[in-house]
Write a structure and sequence with these properties.
Elements lengths: L3 H24 L14 E6 L3 H18 L2 E6 L2 H9 L5 E6 H4 L1 H8 L3 E8 L3 E7 L1 H4 L35 E4 L6 H12 L6 E4 L4 H14 L5 E5 L2 H5 L2 E3 L7 H7 L9 E6 H6 L4 H6 L4 H14 L3 H11 L1 H4 L5 H11 L1
Parallel strand pairs: 1-2, 6-7
Antiparallel strand pairs: 3-10, 4-10, 5-8, 5-9
Helix pairs in contact: 2-13, 2-14, 2-16, 13-14
Length: 343
């Protein structure tokens, strides 16, 4: 027969045991993830605010979570803020580092070992003055005749100014340039002078990125002429057939003198912090193989635009449609885990 004190002792022991078991569940008995593995911790990815980096984050997050068992967290902020956080080890992975934006800071971070170069996500990106391809080649399906078959380079523009006549300033054509305040605005304005376009064209500054893209979309959908600054990868370049007007090949000396060449190439890289490389060495093979290219990125962004899809939805679509590409980034075992998560 149990005494009251024995009963109290046993009850107290059960309570202690319960607390101990719950503590184990909270600390060492973490529930397994969807891939059947215990999460290994959290990897933080930089989001500097534009749609292509958000897409690449979503693709890599899906692979890191389902292929490697990590949780992921997206850290948002401006380019300088997120890059500084990356070099200090507060952000683990940067999927889209526009290296020219950081100049010496990027080189110093690599040389100092604060971050490690993993791969070039894309280096076939471009920017400059674009026209709809139907102006040059026509579009039989839309009943559009080629109105400027000889338009190949920026230096050809004076012969076609009437095609792009500025409704608000008759007698000259309109070049849609950069919104004011962008670094490229000064470059474009100087290019117009360098290529002697000031007599035949007005350099027009749209009020915003949205205003610039809306002008291109409106003209393209109506089958009308437009010459405008843009860049790739972007959803516009994925959705519409645009032609970049040619310039002389990039030459650093000429560029520094008057910007009279094509824009310099910009390697857009994937990097990992030194701390994360130490903590999660198994993901480095994946990151070192990650190469998307501008065209695939633009196609993904066009999918997002057309379908009003999130970056995560676009990532799933991309992974489902491009298994041959991303499977080559991974070991067979890891690729199987990612594929299983897509089913």
């Amino acid at each position: 027969m149990l005494t009251k004190s024995t009963k109290k002792f046993k009850m107290f022991s059960l309570v202690l045991l319960s607390v101990f078991v719950l503590s184990l569940a909270a600390c060492g008995g973490t529930p397994t993830g969807d891939n059947g593995e215990e999460p290994k911790g959290t990897l933080k990815l930089a989001d500097a605010g534009w749609d292509s980096i958000q897409f690449h984050n979503a693709v890599s997050a899906f692979i890191l979570e389902n292929g490697y068992g990590y949780d992921t967290e997206i850290i948002t902020g401006s380019s300088p803020v997120t890059f500084t956080g990356h070099t200090q080890g507060d952000i683990d992975v940067y999927m889209e580092v526009w290296t020219d934006n950081f100049g010496d800071a990027y080189t110093d971070a690599i040389n100092n070992g604060d971050i490690l170069y993993m791969a070039t996500n894309f280096d076939d990106n471009a920017q400059g003055l674009y026209v709809p391809t139907y102006l040059i080649e026509g579009d039989a399906e839309r009943g559009i005749e080629p109105l400027a078959p000889g338009l190949v380079s920026i230096t050809d523009l004076p012969g076609y100014w009437e095609l792009f006549e500025d409704a608000e300033n008759p007698g000259v054509g309109r070049i849609y340039g950069s919104p004011p305040g962008w670094a490229v605005d000064e470059i474009l304005a100087k290019k117009v002078e360098t290529y002697e376009l000031t007599d035949t064209y007005e350099y027009f500054r749209p009020g915003s990125d949205a205003a610039l893209s809306a002008s291109i979309v409106r003209a393209y959908q109506a089958g009308e002429p437009i010459v405008a600054y843009y860049w790739e990868p972007t959803w516009i370049m994925g959705l519409y057939d645009m032609t970049l007007l040619q310039e002389p090949p990039y030459d650093e000396e000429i560029w520094n003198e008057n910007f009279g060449t094509e824009f310099p190439p910009v390697p857009v890289t994937v990097t990992i912090s030194a701390e994360a490389a130490e903590r999660a060495p198994e993901i480095m093979d994946f990151l070192s193989n990650y190469e998307m290219g501008s065209e695939r990125t633009s196609d993904a962004l066009a999918y997002m635009q057309e379908n009003e899809a999130t970056a995560e939805e676009a990532a799933i679509y991309f992974l489902q449609e491009n298994q041959d590409l991303w499977a080559g980034w991974l070991s067979a075992e890891t690729a199987d885990k990612v594929l299983a998560a897509l089913q």
